[in-house]
Amino acid sequence: MKILPAISAFVVLMAAACFTASCNPKAQTTTETFATDSAAIVNPTPADTTAESSQPAIEQQQAEGKEFLEKFYAGYEKDITDYAFIRKHVTKNAEQYLKDSYDYDCETDDCLAVWVFAYEAGGDTGPLKKRVIEPVDASTFKVRSVYKYTDQGDYEYVVKLSLVKDGDSYKIDQIEPIGEKYPKE
Question: SS3 of 114, please?
């Protein structure tokens, strides 16, 4: 009779050992899952670092876009009425916006509101003091033009331009005047 409690204790001990180790598939899965999850935290997969790796690409695109806009504004300042130059650097979408924004008489029906790149229509600006091009995102920029207005202050105009890649260069696709600011009188 003393053998029965010994056998019972042995069976209970074996069942407990089997439950926590290799006899229990759930215990094994949990242990393996924990090990896999822990490894993923310590050693992130490339998918976890995608945002970090795309940052240099965004910065490169911003640098290229800013360079394009600097060259565009240099050519624009040479002759603001050079429609061929403007058309070369804008998409059909932006060209249509410039046509629609031209509120004056146009005998040829192809006039463009080219001033939207630098100032509000009918505005009296004075000489350009500075132009600042700031990225909003990878392909959108705010262009702030500041002009000497009066002894009381400067006139400031801001336009948001969205670019699209066109071969090895860019074109302006969307134009959104943000606003203007006159000095306090």
Answer: helix
